[in-house]
Amino acid sequence: MYRQIVVHPDDRSLQQIVWRNDPSEPMKAYQLNTVTYGTASAPYLATRCLKQIGMDCKDDKISEIIIHDFYVDDLLTGGDSIQDALDIHNKVSSELATAGMNLRKWKSNEPRVILNNNNSSLELNIGSTEPCKTLGLSWQIESDELYFSTSEIVLNNFTKRGLLSVISQIFDPLGLPTPCIISMKILMQKLWLLKLTWDEQLPSEIIKLWLSIVENLSFLNNLRIPRSVICNQYINVDLHILVTHLKWLTEHVCMSVVLIIKIM
């Protein structure tokens, strides 16, 4: 994606590298003409160019998808029918192809969306039970469910650094398992109040509490969340979240989510 974006000639002098094929040769300076991976501005420039493609698109629906359904170079979108998904697939691909950005590795819970595509670079996994990652979340394509896996979580050591390492291993952009992991974050907050250093051994009562929390994380492996939670032809959707009072790790978090859908 980055290599498809040309840097303005006035700014190319800021992207220079020196190189020589042999130690006996003099150094040569080269200017990089395209956005370079690893530079601080690269993610913004790529995202901004992608947004511009969406803004220039004359199809309002496709424009909305390109602007709002991309995370860097990953597209997460869908349609209310197979034909709708196929139209999105073809039109978004065509629009981005005009800028030299070819979408690859399509995945769908509906095999016909992929089978109707002639792109040989597709990564097909039709009928496979293997999960795939969707922005850090595990997605079981066949059942169309999101889930979390805690089997790979490693407990390094009983220090503040070790606890933070474990907490960071649970990637939760949607906040779905928050009732299960909030106690870990509150415990981390308590460590700051105790003014412990990063590598200082934790008090025994904290270790005991931490082990109890980590042991219960295994229940997350049984959690399955349907990816699609709304019906077709809705007018608007309201999400209401109710949370009870939470005391310091002495009571469970009680949270209810109410999804209100107004149908045509």
Automatic annotation (TrEMBL):
<feature type="domain" description="Reverse transcriptase">
    <location>
        <begin position="4"/>
        <end position="136"/>
    </location>
</feature>
<dbReference type="GO" id="GO:0071897">
    <property type="term" value="P:DNA biosynthetic process"/>
</dbReference>
<protein>
    <recommendedName>
        <fullName>Reverse transcriptase domain-containing protein</fullName>
    </recommendedName>
</protein>
<dbReference type="InterPro" id="IPR000477">
    <property type="entry name" value="RT_dom"/>
</dbReference>
<dbReference type="Pfam" id="PF05380">
    <property type="entry name" value="Peptidase_A17"/>
</dbReference>
<dbReference type="InterPro" id="IPR043128">
    <property type="entry name" value="Rev_trsase/Diguanyl_cyclase"/>
</dbReference>
<dbReference type="InterPro" id="IPR008042">
    <property type="entry name" value="Retrotrans_Pao"/>
</dbReference>
<dbReference type="Pfam" id="PF00078">
    <property type="entry name" value="RVT_1"/>
</dbReference>
<dbReference type="InterPro" id="IPR043502">
    <property type="entry name" value="DNA/RNA_pol_sf"/>
</dbReference>
